[in-house]
Amino acid sequence: MIDPAVHCFVVPAHGESPHLDDCLRSLSEQTVKTAISISTSTPNHHIRALAERYGVPLHVNPVRGGIGADWNFALEAAETPWVTLAHQDDIYLPQFAARMLQALSDCRDGILVFSGYEEIEGSHVRSTSTLLRIKQALLELGFVGGSRATRRFFKTNALRFGCAIACPSATINVAATGLRFRTDLKVDLDWAAWLQLARRPGAFIYLRDILMRHRVHAESETSAAISAGHRLAEDRTVLRSLWPEPLAQAILASYRIAYRSNQVPTQT
């Protein structure tokens, strides 16, 4: 297994999430220990107290520039080549770090490794749903039953119809790629980032096992962005970069149906 010192979980904390404690606990209970830190542009007693409780560094961004700026600050706060942006509402199963590090050891040309995940809605955990099945099907366009995609065509293929790679499940080789998220996007910044990485040398690695749990709730950034119309505009922008205009519009039309119930095919 590759040295755990190459990896860090950074939690971009915002506000006073009631789930941040559970997230940090899950990171502290990994079977293989790697670095953990918190970054925030909204410092408060809740975040500071949890940083102290878990004995992790707290990095405060003095500038509030939106989610893209927050994520970029989080990447910069890490002192390791590999970084997982651990979303504050999510849970990481105990084997997440171990499996990710083993994958990096087995595939030294990796630039992005990500895993399967479950959803948490309220107190209910669901390992499958229509949305998850759609994402799994989209990923097969690039991975075709395998766990590694190295050619630009296949890496891009996994992202042509939507963002099937959940950002909180992804670990990024920041040192090799210099990845930065777009600050002009509110929702599709991870989709745009993965497409950017798909154009670069290096492998995408898909860990098919469920290694984390992603929380779905009405107060999420996704729900707010759909209500404000940001998602529709951003999806249109990304799809136009992948498809001729008529096809982009046809794909976008199918998204509109899903927006009505906040079950968006590209939701991450």
Summarize the structure.
The protein is α/β, with parallel strands linked by helices and 268 residues long.
Which helices and strands occur, and which strands form pairs?
Layout: E1 7-13, H1 20-28, E2 35-40, H2 45-54, E3 58-60, H3 67-77, E4 82-85, E5 91-92, H4 96-106, E6 110-121, E7 124-126, H5 130-143, E8 148-149, H6 152-157, E9 170-173, H7 174-177, H8 189-198, E10 203-215, H9 221-228, H10 230-242, H11 245-259
Helix pairs in contact: 10-11
Give a structural overview.
- With 268 residues, the protein is an alpha/beta fold.
- It has one domain: Spore Coat Polysaccharide Biosynthesis Protein SpsA, Chain A (Alpha-Beta Complex), CATH 3.90.550.10.
- 41% of the residues lie in helices and 21% in strands.
- The chain is built from eleven helices and ten strands.
- The chain has helices at residues 20-28, 45-54, 67-77, 96-106, 130-143, 152-157, 174-177, 189-198, 221-228, 230-242, 245-259; strands at residues 7-13, 35-40, 58-60, 82-85, 91-92, 110-121, 124-126, 148-149, 170-173, 203-215.
- Strands 1, 2, 3, 4, 5, 6, 7, 8, 9 and 10 form a ten-stranded mixed β-sheet that branches.
- The chain is globular and about 55 Å long.
What is the approximate shape? globular
**Nearest-integer average pLDDT:** 89
Series of H and E elements:
EHEHEHEEHEEHEHEHHEHHH
Largest sheet: 10 strands, mixed
Number of strands: 10
Low-confidence stretches: 261-268
**How much of the residues is beta strand, in percent?**
15-25%
Cα distance, first to last residue?
29 Å
The CATH superfamily title = Spore Coat Polysaccharide Biosynthesis Protein SpsA, Chain A
Provide the gyration radius in Å.
Answer: 17 Å
The CATH topology name reads Spore Coat Polysaccharide Biosynthesis Protein SpsA, Chain A
User: What is the correct CATH architecture?
Assistant: Alpha-Beta Complex
Domains, number: 1
CATH class: Alpha Beta
Query: What is the structural class?
Result: alpha/beta
Q: Give the fraction of residues assigned to helices.
A: 40-55%
Number of helices: 11
